[in-house]
Design a protein that fits this description.
205 residues; alpha+beta; 7 helices
Length: 205
């Protein structure tokens, strides 16, 4: 299944087999790895096994492309359409974009698709390492709320549909004004017959 989302001059494209070595190299980079829950070295074989697990209609791993260059990955994974649930994440490997609007614009694009196109989607969860204050502030700014009484190394933040509508949608409108892009997120979904039963309700919305 191929998915392409476009807004704010950014393209989010579902990862393909040809992308996974690039992702593996950056995922093993110490500047990226230190913020991840899983920090062991990832081999090519491990990366291939991972890709085969996530290359399904219930996991959206998308390259973030700007100015014709892939600069990071954003995802909604472990989607459960019966419960309207999925877990989000992002990492940017090009450091020149770390302190820019790009990560936020990419996240707002995916959230708009998730909540407004996949209209049965009700909850997005973000997993943040306890010592990653930057990511914690980032998610709170987007409307995610920390689940109380957590004691592990990684903490769960939740964005409900109600919170999305009251806070995140306002951020989307502000971003549309800033970037002079007032159109809804543009998306293309292409699927093969073998994937049709699982994604039919998504592709037809």
């Amino acid at each position: 299944m191929s998915i392409i989302l476009q807004k704010y001059g950014i393209t989010l494209r579902r990862i393909e087999q040809s992308d996974i070595e690039l992702l593996r190299q950056w995922r093993n980079n110490p500047d990226i790895n230190k913020y991840m829950a899983y920090r062991a070295h990832i081999t090519p074989e491990m990366q291939q096994q991972w890709f085969e697990r996530v290359n399904t209609p219930l996991h959206y791993y998308l390259l973030i492309i700007t100015e014709g260059k892939a600069v990071g990955v954003i995802n909604t994974k472990n989607i459960n359409m019966d419960e309207g649930f999925g877990e989000g994440g992002i990492f940017i490997w090009e450091q020149q974009y770390w302190r820019t609007y790009l990560p936020t614009l990419a996240t707002l694009t995916l959230l708009e698709f998730t909540f407004d196109v996949l209209s049965d989607f009700d909850v997005s969860v973000a997993r943040v390492m306890r010592d990653n204050d930057v990511a914690a502030r980032y998610n709170r700014a987007l409307g995610y709320v920390l689940i109380p009484e957590q004691y592990g190394d990684d903490l769960l933040y939740v964005l409900t549909r109600r919170k999305y509508k009251t806070k995140t949608t306002r951020l989307i409108r502000a971003a549309e004004k800033l970037m002079n892009d007032h159109l809804p997120v543009r998306y293309t979904i292409e699927h093969s017959p073998r994937n049709l039963p699982a994604i039919n309700q998504l592709a037809q919305k």
